[in-house]
């Protein structure tokens, strides 16, 4: 508990103790003079009332002053003041004291649900050790680190900004970022992200991002924005409370006034005998109206529903899943279709040259060398695999020729001018465009890269991408969580895409797609989800690359694989999986479904109990103690139910 919450707890404890003491004195008649003159109890009961409820009364008066009177403070204040006028001192104090007990419980629950998100604040580095050109070490604020600076990170220190390890080996703890308890090994050349904790060795890291663009800053930004994006359920409860509160206030006034006026008029005109007025004095209807007000307080709904969603976001963040708003947690619980990219999402994205198939009379060396010349300088995974294969062969020390010009044909390949010759490196579409006959035939899960010089076909290179170990398990678990269809979109060739889809159990595969085609396919799938202009189920897209950003933005829920994903994809996504673990996707679906289920339970339970006790109180069958249960008791039960989200399951 925070110091503020501890003070609130002590204040409520004192008022509860004083209140229970007065109840004992009154019921056991320890002080006879007080029981002989009940009004003497009034000043005594006012002591615990104001100890616990002074801030509520103050909020009520401020609300009236600021012309925003219709809130819980008004309901509690009017109800308790009315109960005092009705002579029910103990019940008036009970309403205020136990209302504050419920508020205390709420504050504690919110604190618990925020705990996992607040832990993210601990990942913010406090300083950075920068190595200067003269060899000196300067300790600076992380904001002052510039791209290219060399940072020294000692054992136990936090990585201040994203960078590349230049020297040193160590184990880094990424638990706060990814939820992964096992430390990761890093070696020279590895990328390291801010917020990780260096476990043992000394690392020299070259900064590749400034602090404001680094992973830790992005995470905190996402967390801060999450509370602004409310679910439909939360927005409904907010609107409901604004309309509901003034209605019940006026209904209570009507309950206090109309029956009394009706009885009085009936007695005056002779419809009712005067004894009826004595049997139902004005104070009876005032008491019922006060009970009605206490019951109608929407605390259980206003508190427990947002708390449920906040708890869901906290539960997800503990496992390395960043949800940018509770609205996305609600949408992900109703997924019908999950669309996924292939490369880097279902597969590792680590392309390697599997085999070289040159034409007759062309050597493997010539085929690979020609392709490497064109791909030199490209950052595309396929290009990198060709260059890596080139370096591993015997002409690794041979300097590659520099093309005079290179043209990138999106979705087809590269066209280069090398020593006055036109060199083509790409897929079948590129060969067909220039009328070059090429070899057919495929290898399982391999991408084919054709090579031609002018009009002569040199051969093809098979490039394979490994499927992630947990891709199949993740897809099966998504279906267990209620996803009806898994669709894969890829720019890869049809045979390769279909082979991967069959291995993983994907329902539909669309291949040879450009980025714009992926958006069109998602639009088509989204239209299929709408019936009569309404949408009851939703579509999520999972991707990691820059070219996935448009599709992530267009889908109902965009899920980015954040560990290796591009900044553009993470920015466009609604949910970020921090460690690229596909099994986190069915996990976040499960958390979303559980969150919505608990929020729905709270709404049904709170409304059911309140409606029942409201009707009973209107007809005089429920007293103020029943009202206290319908308000505070129901609120506490709903909060306890919402707090189940904080437990790992």
Walk me through this protein's architecture:
This protein has 649 residues and is of the alpha+beta class. 51% of the residues lie in helices and 18% in strands. It has 22 helices and 24 strands. The strands form 5 sheets. It has a 7-stranded mixed sheet, sandwiched between helices. The longest helix has 37 residues, at 232-268. The model has no long low-confidence stretch (mean pLDDT 80).
For this entry, give a set of tags.
elongated; six-stranded antiparallel sheet; alpha+beta; 649 residues; single chain
The overall average pLDDT, rounded, is 80
Overall shape: it is elongated
Q: What portion of residues belong to β-strands? A: 15-25%
Stretches with pLDDT under 50, minimum 5 residues: none
**What is the distance, rounded to the nearest whole angstrom, between the alpha carbons of the first and last residues?**
25 Å
- Extended strand count: 24
Proportion of helical residues: 40-55%
Number of helices: 22
- Work out the radius of gyration: 34 Å
Report the sheet with the most strands, covering strand number, pairing sense and barrel closure. Answer: 7 strands, mixed
What class, by secondary structure content? Answer: alpha+beta
Strand order of the largest sheet: 10-24-23-22-11-18-19
